[in-house]
Amino acid sequence: MLAIIAVGGAVGFRSLLEGLGQFYYLPMVPAVLITAMLARRIATGLAIVLSIAVNLTLVPRESLTDALTNALLFAAVSWILAEVCWAMRAMQDRTRDLSRQLAAKDVMLNTALASVPVVTLNAEGEVRHLSPAASTLFGLNEAAAVGRPFSELASGFDVAAILGSGATGGALEARDGHWTGLRPDGATFPLSIQFGVASDPIGDTHVALCLTDLSRWHAADAQARELHAQLNKVWRLNSLGEMAATLAHELNQPLSAAATYLHASQVDMEKAGALGGSALRTVELAKGQLLRAGKIIRRMRELLSPEARRLDSERASSMVEDLGPILTMIGSSKGVAIRMEVEAGNDRVRAERIQFQQAMVNLVRNAVEAVGEHAAPEVVVVGRPTSDTHYRISVEDNGPGIAEDQIERIFQPLTTTKTGGMGLGLSVTRTIVESHGGRLQVSRSALGGAAFSFTLNRESSVENA
Ligand code: ADP
Predict the structure, then answer these.
(1) What is the per-residue pLDDT across 220-261, written as a single tens digit (0 to 9) for each?
(2) 418 CA from centroid of ligand 1 (Å)
(3) 426 CA to centre of ligand 1 in angstroms
(4) How far is the CA of 366 from the centre of ligand 1 (A)?
(5) What is the pLDDT of residues 443-459, one digit of tens each?
(6) Residue 91 burial (CB < 10 Å; 0-12/13-18/19+)?
């Protein structure tokens, strides 16, 4: 259709020029070019054929050879022009595509640079560019940083070490584990650096540094270390207390029995008269020592038994969350990923934070040790309110579980099935749970192994609100 309209238009135009002379094929050229620009090859071919047919019909020729030569010449020239037209159109399309791709890359790069601290340097180690995120990190605008040696922003940095190594990229090792970033106000912060080296077509060397602020990571690490140290201390005291209570309990009976026997001997000796006098005094001394031993043990128990717990208002989810790095460490030692399903709603409870955390560590460690041999080990910590007054915590696993007839035994101090186990974990945990007004229970988990659970008292619903 386009070919017919274009050729028709050209014929009309040609008839307007009629009075000025004979124009043959010239007015048809724009018709073919317009068709080539707007349509494809078939339409263009049709425009050429139509143009030739119109010319042969309208313009009388001297000979057939003349008519054919002009027609062929017109067809060849028109087709070449059409090819040029198509090539230009393809080039235009490609340019448009490329600029679209470039614009998209530009947006991506700018977005990345806005959020990632990146610094580029020249071969002398001087700052060339500072991304907005790097600007924020150093508290320095780009204009103030450009031209300064990067070693003024990161202590000990040496660009020669990078270029001398011949490496084109990777992590830049720091002497003491991390780099130290320096801010204009004298503040410092830990930093990790990834580098990339590239040369541009002119031969200039560019060093790009991608920086990561480690402050938060360091703070979290320090916090986890501190909690770990506290838990170790609490564990030592708790297990000593448990041992003292066990010793006092176990020794009380034989000591009392010995005292009773000595008393009975004394009665017999009194009957023996003067002969027994000396032995009576010795037995009295022995009795005194026995009573002293009893007092020492009682005193030790009093010293090590926990004072009345000071229960504070705490959020169960936050107490468990803080343990995250420690529980992860316990799990990863046996290749076990610990799942947390602790509900953060209505989780304000009365608890002594560090003691509660100690109980959780004990239960999770036991669960991890129980699933150690399992092909697909599972340990899950679940927490949810069960009523207006209680919040239940449980630690479940898919280990072998606990046989019915062993349930009472495992809570007794010094009972263990592990080589190197102390058998104090569960008894310490039970003491902690009971001092919170709860009861440590064990049952079979839906996962197939053991489920240890206990409840904490919730803050009143008014306080929760
Ligand atoms: P220890 O861990 O030193 O043995 P515990 O008092 O913590 O001391 O545990 C006592 C015993 O209870 C363990 O030796 C183990 O046999 C059993 N036990 C504890 N937790 C689990 C569990 N999650 N699955 C199976 N058995 C368990």
Answers:
(1) 889 999 999 999 999 998 998 888 888 888 898 899 899 899
(2) 8
(3) 7
(4) 6
(5) 999 999 999 999 999 98
(6) exposed
How confident is the model at residue 134, as a pLDDT? Answer: 94
Whether residue 463 is predicted with pLDDT greater than 60 in this model: the reply is no
How many angstroms does the Cα of residue 393 sit away from the middle of ligand 1?
A: 18
Q: Among 42-46, 117-121, 298-302, 380-384, which is the least confidently predicted range?
A: 298-302
CATH 1.10.287.130: which residues of the chain?
231-304
Residue 399 CA: nearest ligand 1 atom is: 24
Ligand 1: residue of 410, 414, 415, 441 to mutate (most ligand atoms within 8 A of CB) is: 410
Identify the H or E element spanning 81.
Answer: helix 64-115
Of ligand 1's listed atoms, the one at least distance from the Cα of 422 is: 3
CATH code of the domain made up of 118-214: 3.30.450.20
Cα–Cα distance for residue pair 167/152, rounded to 1 Å: 23
Alpha carbon of 339 to ligand 1 centroid (Å):
20
Instruction: Give the start-end residues of each E strand in 257-351.
Output: 312-315, 338-342, 348-351
User: Which CATH architecture group holds 312-457?
Assistant: 2-Layer Sandwich (3.30)
Q: Which residues line ligand 1 (CB under 6 A)?
A: 362, 366-367, 370, 397, 399-400, 402, 410, 415-418, 421-427, 449-450
Range(s) within the chain of domains with CATH label 3.30.565.10: 312-457
Q: What is residue 148's DSSP assignment? A: S
Half-sphere CA count of 186, side-chain side, radius 13 A:
0
What is the fold of 231-304?
Helix Hairpins (1.10.287)
Q: Is 433 exposed, middle or buried (0-12, 13-18, 19+ CB in 10 A)?
A: buried
CB atoms within 10 A of CB 130: 26
Distance 416 CA to ligand 1 centre (A): 6
